[in-house]
Amino acid sequence: MELLGHGFYYQDWHVGYEFSTLGRTITETDILNFVGVSGMTEELFTSRQYLEEHTDFAGRIVPGALVFSMAEGLVIPATIARTGIAFLNCEIDIKGPTFAGDTIHVEGRVTQIKPASRGNRALVRTDNTVVNQRGETTLTYNPLRMMKGRPDTPATG
Question: Among 15, 37, 101, 130, whose CB has the most other CB atoms within 10 angstroms?
Fold first, then answer.
């Protein structure tokens, strides 16, 4: 029986491979739950009155950390479930605001695959772009992950 939902092994990808995830609408409830769990109780995220009186934003702002977290929630089950070993680092760049009610998806491109010196694994870097329903880029990040190789591939080193 075939197991569905299993991620890619590093050998299944090549530099230049591109993917796009499904979308996810970010709700006010998502924002309030995230703010409560993370302790990010900045008025920018918790007070409509503050937004109206002190900013030019026309809606409830989504914390960039939540946008990143939701982007990862879209990428992981679609690409590296059971094959990702470790998230090692990334640079995050917030390009524009995300608002409650926005639907985001992630567009990714593999930029680096470096087999490890030992074991059946590799370092894999992707450039990921978070795009909203208007086609606007709101956040970019470039995770470097350790990923498993196919079980039938001999380990190196």
Answer: 130
